[in-house]
Amino acid sequence: MKLIVKIQCDKFPIMYQMLGVSLIKQALGSTSSTYCDQLYKFEDNKSNKKAKNFCFAFKVVDYKLQKEEFDVKGEVVLIISSPDNEFMLRVYNGLIQNRNFKYNNYELNIKNVFIKDHKTCRRLQVVLKTQSPIWIKNNVGQSVEIDDAEYQKEFNYICDKVLEAYRGYGLRSELNFEPVNMRRKVVKQYIREFKDATNKDIFYTNCYEGIFKLYGDVDDINDLIQLGFGFKRSQGYGLVELL
Prior knowledge:
Layout: E1 2-8, E2 11-13, H1 17-31, H2 33-40, E3 55-66, E4 69-81, H3 85-97, E5 100-103, E6 106-116, E7 125-130, H4 151-167, E8 176-189, H5 192-198, E9 203-215, H6 218-227, E10 240-242
Antiparallel strand pairs: 1-4, 1-6, 2-4, 3-4, 5-6, 7-9, 7-10, 8-9
């Protein structure tokens, strides 16, 4: 399931990831603070780092770029994807009940929210296009480049963990990732915990976006299309569409 959210605003940040997180948390919290806390917090009030069953992407339509923000002439479109119906319905209800949202100096007005089904994969081989960049890292937190011999292994590792967190078991069979027209994208993100730990303002990730082929089990692929690919999916990474 996908939610398509049409947003009206004058300004929008380039580093939009935490704005998206905050917007989704506000929508969830307005329908059930208990549900939101269970998703994002442990009992001792520490952040819950467990993989979330959703991903999202923003698309800014008709804009002028000014330093670290968009001067929006058209609209901003938020796409949220998840196979978790309860999560999606709570977000949907929260967004239509609370249409005005503030984040730092940005004011957003929710104009429309639509529910849309994903295209269904029926083949062992599919062609996918990213709507937000995919980040793959190794076990020490370093970005893995797409031409690195380790990319395939780490790609399968995180896909296995994402599926296990959602449905209780991981990949049915190994995935084969084949880039078709992928390009590198360095994503900048402000994360408070990163600043507190390193005294650096910006966290950089070497991601990839574009078109790729994927070979694997049909059920695995269909679930992953809704859950997203790679790390930090619930912070605006890893959303794809089936071509």
